[in-house]
Design goal:
Blueprint: E1 16-18, E2 27-29, E3 31-35, E4 40-45, E5 54-59, E6 65-74, E7 79-89, E8 94-97, E9 108-112, E10 116-121, E11 135-141, E12 153-158, E13 165-170, E14 174-179, E15 184-190, E16 196-201, E17 207-212, E18 216-221, E19 229-233, E20 240-245, E21 252-257, E22 262-267, E23 276-279, E24 284-289, E25 296-301, E26 305-310, E27 323-326, E28 331-336, E29 343-348, E30 351-356
């Protein structure tokens, strides 16, 4: 990334950094690219300590059959390679790896679309041997068991402080909170007056926020679900598409509107009014806080730009990003790696790139 537009650079001319920990180590490039056979959409970095530089990427194909690919940076080949793939019903609206760094934890990947599904990656066979590259369905969770029809799930969040808890958002105006250990719903509540488009947990296990088609940001406490707090409402109640919570400073959240150039940053201590608005030159598609910093946030959109912002100067206005990267097409999704905090990933067109920042 640079503070100016970053043109495509031949691989042999890209800046390089010495990889640590191997006698025959190869130098890491600043940018790695993986070409997909379809348009990439949802994406997630693995946090397992023994699975560094691993991502899951979902397809966006307007058909029933879609795919999820698992890719990883191969140290010997010094490039991103496939580590497995599986079919997925409809495009996955979100992917998340189990938020557990332990190497002995079950290697789980969660997806939403028609239902909340858990997939086990590299499972052990009956002899206890790991089956590399194999991916099997662990469970499929559905709250609407009285009907054959389901209300599609728009998003979900996996609680990073209690990995048993997953919260889902649905177009039927509800949010559900699941205990995946017992595969049961802990609660299902009507969260908004229209579709719920996203949900995010705060640091800890009890507080989550949601956004939806009614243009509101709402806060919920699992210990007291009789009431919710409307933190923010858009002018003319324009729908809000995404919500992300700053895990390093839980006073701050960020949200984006449907078909809007702006990222709205909110402070729970000052409801109703944004503390700052960060702007692209075209619609914003994705936003995420730095997992290791309380004052850095990244965003990407239809202007082909991935931007990193520093909001440490608040309450003074934040006018320009500190870093920018110019992709060759509209960026659909962006995520900052929690395990390798100097790397982010972006998906645009049929390409996935990981960028050192």
């Amino acid at each position: 990334m640079s503070t100016t537009e970053n043109p495509e650079v031949p691989e042999e001319e890209q800046p390089q950094q010495l990889q640590q920990g191997s006698s025959n180590a190869k130098k890491k490039k600043e940018i790695y690219t993986y070409e997909l056979p379809w348009v990439g959409n949802a994406m997630s970095w693995s946090v397992r300590c023994d699975k560094r530089f691993r991502l899951a990427v979902a397809s966006y194909v307007e058909e029933y059959q879609n795919r999820v690919n698992i890719i990883q940076l191969d140290d010997e080949q010094n490039k991103l390679v496939s580590r497995g793939a599986f079919d997925h019903p409809y495009p996955a609206t979100k992917l998340m790896w189990l938020p557990d760094q332990r190497v002995n934890a079950t290697d789980l990947l969660a997806t939403t679309g028609d239902y909340l599904r858990l997939w086990e990656v590299n499972p052990r066979n009956k002899d206890g041997e790991v089956e590399d590259g194999k991916i099997v369905t662990s469970c499929c969770l559905n709250n609407n068991k009285k009907t054959d029809f389901c209300a599609p799930l728009t998003s979900f969040d996996w609680n990073s402080d209690d990995a048993r808890i997953v919260g889902t958002a649905s177009i039927d105006t509800t949010c559900s909170v699941w205990d995946i250990e017992v595969q049961q719903s802990l609660t299902q509540l009507i969260a908004h007056e229209k579709e719920v488009y996203d949900l995010a947990f705060a640091k800890g296990t009890d507080i989550f926020a949601s956004v939806g088609g009614d243009g509101s940001v709402r806060l919920f406490d699992l210990r007291s679900l009789e009431h919710s707090t409307i933190l923010f409402e858009t002018e003319d109640l324009r729908p809000l598409l995404r919500i992300v919570w700053n895990k390093q400073d839980p006073n701050y959240l960020a949200t984006i509107l449907v078909d809007s150039n702006d990222i709205i940053v909110l402070d729970v201590r000052v409801p109703s009014v944004p503390v700052t608005v960060l702007s692209h030159t075209a619609s914003v598609n994705s936003v995420g806080w730095a997992p290791h910093s309380s004052c850095h946030i990244c965003s990407a959109g239809d202007d082909c730009l991935a931007l990193i912002w520093d909001i440490s100067a608040l309450p003074h206005p934040i006018e320009d990003p500190i870093l920018a990267y110019n992709a060759t097409s509209h960026i659909n999704h962006l995520q900052w790696s929690a395990l390798q905090t100097d790397w982010i990933s972006i998906a645009f067109g049929n390409s996935v790139q990981i960028l050192r920042v």
